[in-house]
């Protein structure tokens, strides 16, 4: 099956751009699977093997669309857009899994504003893909009122992503979505209007957009009397810092505090570095040795750049 599918010219160009930036080995795209008849953003996986990274498209309904989606995500990371990391644990494996999935989905909503715009620019999205995407939504969600409220969170996530995907092309699909998911669609539209008020042109804009989505999502959860996710604390989002901020002392840019959560690997209590300006988890660290006020004074006095590099904490320089 896999030999019949070839990357189209636009995807070959994307793959070339990715490989020019990819640091170790080569990136390959492979196709394996059946046709489900619908399109979703979980129809590909990535595997790192000796010699490079393999993007494996696992559903052949729209292979070139799915391949381009993965390649553009990768290209954005290689070009220095913010990444998320999961370094903390709530002490419950299943809860951690759920948190990571939802946090990643919300992060992807922000990333998709750029990814989907690029896909449309290069002709990867046509009416057929839009129809298959709608089938993907219908495959994922049950209509409201059928299953009580246990799907509320998933519906909001799915429809928010759908609004980003359809953008100006929503008119043809809105009635269908409204008929099946009226409450989720109304909540998603309210969020969407706020997050699209500002364009995304730089990694700094993207970071701001991710934090905004995390906070708006929690507001909606609380309106529905559902638990907030608190991704501002749970999820580490790589900081975007200017040259001037990198020279400042750590105290001026970050606040370090003791979390109730544990470090994922060690199960020890973690410290979180919160960015003062936006209250977002920007790094985590183990307890310093010795864990004394004097030690913290010394850490706080270090220049930001020196501290981040000493602890191998990824950051992005704001141009």
TrEMBL record:
Domain of life the protein comes from: Bacteria
What is the official name of this protein in its record? IpaB/EvcA family protein
Q: Which organism is it from?
A: Limosilactobacillus panis DSM 6035
**Lineage summary:** Bacteria, Bacillati, Bacillota, Bacilli, Lactobacillales
């Amino acid at each position: 099956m896999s030999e019949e599918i070839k990357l189209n010219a636009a995807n070959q160009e994307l793959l070339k751009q990715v490989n020019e930036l990819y640091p170790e080995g080569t990136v390959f795209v492979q196709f394996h699977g059946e046709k489900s008849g619908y399109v979703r953003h979980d129809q590909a996986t990535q595997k790192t093997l000796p010699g490079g990274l393999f993007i494996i498209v696992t559903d052949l309904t729209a292979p070139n669309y799915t391949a381009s989606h993965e390649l553009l995500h990768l290209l954005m990371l290689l070009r220095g857009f913010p990444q998320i990391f999961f370094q903390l644990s709530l002490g419950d494996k299943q809860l951690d899994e759920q948190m990571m999935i939802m946090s990643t989905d919300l992060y992807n909503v922000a990333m998709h504003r750029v990814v989907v715009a690029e896909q449309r620019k290069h002709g990867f999205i046509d009416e057929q893909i839009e129809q298959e995407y709608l089938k993907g939504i219908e495959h994922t969600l049950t209509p409201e009122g059928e299953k009580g409220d246990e799907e509320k969170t998933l519906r909001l996530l799915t429809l928010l992503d759908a609004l980003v995907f359809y953008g100006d092309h929503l008119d043809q699909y809105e009635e269908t979505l409204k008929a099946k998911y009226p409450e989720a669609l109304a909540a998603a539209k309210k969020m969407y209007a706020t997050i699209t008020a500002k364009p995304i042109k730089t990694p700094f804009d993207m970071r701001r957009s991710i934090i905004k989505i995390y906070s708006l999502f929690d507001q909606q959860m609380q309106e529905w009397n559902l638990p907030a996710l608190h991704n501002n604390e749970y999820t580490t989002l790589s900081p975007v810092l200017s040259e001037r901020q990198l020279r400042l002392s750590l105290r001026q840019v970050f606040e370090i505090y003791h979390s109730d959560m544990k470090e994922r690997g060690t199960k020890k209590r973690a410290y979180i570095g919160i960015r003062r300006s936006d209250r977002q988890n920007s790094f985590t660290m183990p307890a310093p040795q010795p864990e004394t006020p004097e030690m913290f004074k010394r850490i706080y006095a270090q220049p930001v750049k020196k501290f981040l590099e000493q602890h191998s904490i990824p950051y992005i320089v704001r141009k």
